[in-house]
Structure formats: C-alpha cells, structure tokens
Amino acid sequence: MTEQTLKTTFRRRAERRGLRLWHVWIVLPLAFATAVTVAATVFYTGWDLLEARGLKPEHRIDSQTLFDLVKLSFGVVAGAGALVALIVAYRRQRVDEDGALREATRLHTERFTTAVSQLGNDSAAVRLGGVHALAGLADDAPTRDLRQTCIDVLCAYLRLPYTAEADLPARDPEARHTYLSLREVRHTVIRLIRDHLRLNPRDPHSWRGHHFDFTAVIFDGGDFSEAVFSGGTVSFNGAVFSGGTVSFSGSGFVGRKVDFGSARFSGGAVSFRRTVFSGGTVSFRDAVFSESPVDFGRAQFSGGTVDFGGAGFAGRKVDFEGARFSGSTVDFRGARFSGSTVSFGNAAFSGGTVDLTQATGTAPSGLPLPNGSPVPTGLLLPSTWTS
Question: Which of 151, 232, 268, 285 shows its CA 20 to 30 Å from the CA of 376?
C-alpha cells in the first residue's frame, strides 16, 4: 500500500461523508404537515375527552370573541415562524458540524501523511515514531472509517517483506543489526494493537470491533496476551510463526471470524493458554504444526466453531491439557497426527461437539479417556482409536 494510495483512500472516504440535507422546500411542507397532524390529533383527543356533541352556532360574535380570533390568527403565524426558525437553526447546526468534521478530517489527513512517510524512513527510530503517531491518530480519528485506515496501515507494515533471524546470512553483523531494529518496530506494532484490544469496548480508545489483516505475516515473537478479538474479522491466514514466543495467553476470540487457515507453526513457541473461544468461527484449517510447540492448555472452547480440519500435526508438542470443551463445535475431521506429541490429558468434555471421526494417524495421548472411562457425549473418535 503506497503513500499515494493511502491519500486517495482518505480523499474518497471524505467525499462519501459529504453532508446530505433535503431541500428546504421539501422539509418545510413536511414539517408543516407534521405540525398540523399533531395539532389535529391533540384537538380531537381533547374533543373526545370533553365528550362534546357539536358546536353552538353563533350568528353574531362579540368583541371579546373577535379579539380571541385575532390572537389565534397571530398565534398560528408566530408558530409557523418559529417552526421555520427551528428548521433553519437545525440546518445551520448540521452545516457547522459537517464543517467541523471536514476540518478535523483535513488535519487528520495531514498528520496521517506525515506518519506514513515516517514508516518508510530508513531509520528505525523514525519508524518507531511513525508507528506511535499512527496509533495516536487512530485514537483521535474523527470517524470509525479513519480509525480503521490507521489500523490497516499498521497491519500492512507487518505484512511487508521481512527476513526472520533464522534466515539471516551467517556472520553478518550489519544484517543482524538491521534485523534487530526492524524486529523492534514490528513488535511495537503488535504491542500497541494488543494494548488497544485489552481496553474495555466502552473506552473511546478501544480498537475492538475493527478488522485486522495479518495475512502471511512472519511472526518471530510478539505478545497478544489478554487481547480480545471481537466484532471484526481477523486474518492470520498463511501466517508463519517462525521464532521467538508468540503469546495469545488469556486472549479471547469472541464473534465474527478469526482465520489461522494454512498458518505454519514452524519455529519458536506459540501459546493459546487460557484463551477463550466463545463465538463466531476460528479456523486453523490446513494449518501445519511442525516445529513450534503450541500450547492450548486450559483453553476454553465454550461457543462458536473452531476448525482444525485438514490440519497437520507433525513435529513438536501440541498441548490441549486441561482444556475445557463445553459448548463449541471443534472439528478435527481430516486432521493428520503423524510424529507429533499431541496431548488431551485432563481435558474436560461437558458439552458441544469435538469431532475427530476422520482424523488419521496415532491417537493423541489422553484419547480415548484413560482407565476405560466412557466416551463423553459429543466427543467423536475414529473407530481405530477405540477398538
């Protein structure tokens, strides 16, 4: 995403927010018609409550009645004038608010352009400044769309080409120095996203409900612990976890869709310990668990769907020890267990469905349940594991 593309996106979104007001010659008749309708309703309601049977005819009126009629006429005119003044004041207020929003958007765009240019700087320190500037702009954004644009840029930065530590040239101090600088910037982006996803959704700086695109991002560490992904869509599709420790411990996946499809866990360690899966769809379909130890220990699967269909477990340990399956549909159909140590020890199955009927390979430890315990309702195992 180039700087020019980002400017164009901002301009188009600003154009779509243009103030739309009905023409005054449409508003006035509608307002008068509404006022007459309300007045007529009140009049006939009072007529009914007074149980009136008709009007007493007067062939001649006295001066007091004539004066009351004149006052009524002037009252109608004054009311109409007040109604017109109210409509004009309302439209002026809307125009002023729209002008203030346009000015805020203009200032936001100027600051945004500066922050984006910092992200492209050769200096890691300047890039860090750009990252913090974008996070601050997201907090101050006058509209939800502008906040999402700032978030999109931060995620796009993580998607830029990146060389992990394991792929660095041997004995090249300069390359390692550059790598460490870039890693610090990337981990700062992750930390800022996590901090905003920890905030209560009523907090004006909370980023919950927004979309996060980590497609094909290379993660060599990073802390998402206790972050709550709710409302928006989150994609880790094709992401590579290649080193360091990436923690989702205590995080929550609540609502909408979170996609880890085709992700590769090939180095370092990844923790979903105590993570709560309680709504929407979380997909690990076709993910490859090979060299990373992945910890789902004490995770809670209490709602929604978690899909491990077609995932490959081959290599390091994947731990579901102490996990609680109490309401989710957890689908392991087509999963392949070959050469890895997968453990369901002390897992509790008290609701929902955990379907391994079409899984292949060696049964994970803890399945079927030890000591001849009956298979809980909802836990579906291949016949070859229970025979």
Answer: 285
Q: 13-22 pLDDT, tens per residue?
A: 544 444 555 5
Between 10 and 170, the higher pLDDT residue: 170
235-244 burial, b at 16+ Cβ within 10 Å, e below that, comes to bbbbbbbbbb
d(CA 232, CA 229): 7
Q: Residues 31, 87: contact at Cβ < 8 Å?
A: yes
Return the residue matching tokens 């267990």: 337
The model carries a pTM of: 0.76
Q: Distances in Å between the alpha carbon of 138 and those of 23, 160, 171, 202?
A: 35, 20, 40, 16
CA distance 88 to 268: 65
Q: Which residue in 108, 107, 105, 127 sits closest to 116, CA to CA? A: 127
DSSP state, residue 214: -
CA angle 121, 126, 130 (to 5 degrees): 90
Distance (Å, rounded) from C-alpha 89 to C-alpha 82?
10
Distance separating alpha carbons of residues 267 and 314, to the nearest angstrom? 13
The C-alpha angle 340, 341, 347, rounded to 5 degrees, equals 135
β-bridge pairing 348-355 and 379-380: parallel
Cis bond leading into 368, ω under 30°?
yes
SS3 letters for 220-253? CCEECCCCEEECCCEECCCCEEEEEEEECCCCEE
Domain ranges for the chain, please list them.
1-207, 211-387
